[in-house]
Amino acid sequence: MIIVPEKVIPNLIDRATSYNAVEAVFGAMSRGDAYNFPVIREDIGYADALYGFKSGFDKAGLSLGLKSGGYWPGNEAKGLTNHQSSIFLFNADTGQVKAIVGGNYLTAVRTAAASSVSIQHLARKDSKVLGMIGAGHQSAFQMRSAVEQRDFVKVIGWNYHPEMLSRLADVADELGLPFEAVSLDELGAQADVIISITSSFAPILMAAQVKAGTHIACMGTDTKGKQEVESALIAKATVFTDEIAQSITIGECQHAIAEGLITDGQISEIGAVINGDHAGRTSDDEITLFDGTGVGLQDLAVATAAVELAIASGDAIEIDV
Ligand code: NAD
What we know:
Structural class: alpha/beta
Largest sheet: 8 strands, mixed
Number of domains: 2
Strand content: 25-35%
Bound molecules: nicotinamide-adenine-dinucleotide
């Protein structure tokens, strides 16, 4: 069995590897070659922790396994990240455990890769302004990956806690792009691509604020009750997702579905666009929206890549079990 410790992973996996792994598994999901098993998420009644599993099997990439982890709100006081996860991979032919891989950094890069895949396949080619809603841990990963998909000339941002906006300014500076903190009205009026990555439980971005032709990647909503955009915006947009079952239950579309504004038949898999089975954006005026709920197969895809890279670099720890 191989162990790939968390600390070696940032130096092993680059954005291109992560992007390619996530794009491939979204395509496999849409072809029916890969599927996610039901998600388990439990309040364990100890340390205020939420704990669970996301798992699946990709027959094309031969990734079988699970990501186990959750949220421990007391961790920050101990100098640890609140979100903790580990990925377990199994041999699809024998069921033997193949690898244990640190899942914290991989979660950030696979989430950024998902919005980037949506930008690459759905945003207007002439997109110039990137709008960021959210300035937490994930936002930096999102921005670095997104700017590789189009020739952006400027980043603008809004956050519920304005004191956190310096993170977006710093990352934009590192990327050589000007950054401006703006109101939500200004953000919607200027941005060609919008990424929302917050832990909000109420709509932030309203339908009337978004201009025609915008692509929006809603990445923060991964739990029942969370919401980042007004349901009317979902109803107005052409909607794509990683997995429809998650989108309508724990993703951004849960509210528009519950309010009867859309049906699940109006949501398309991003994998269908990747595979050429769906045209994706069909006009420059269309608003496209990607509901990135975060599926276990994304974790397995990047963990499989990390194991291969760790073996090649000598960073993999091998033990007999
Ligand atoms: P974080 O705690 O570092 O940052 C939280 C962000 O949400 C900050 O921008 C904060 O200002 C904002 N926020 C907090 N309370 C808010 C409120 N009431 N209204 C509006 N905004 C508020 O978190 P993070 O690690 O950056 O993760 C952000 C979100 O992304 C979380 O909801 C997390 O669960 C989700 N997430 C999704 C995926 C996926 O695959 N879709 C993967 C990882 C994380």
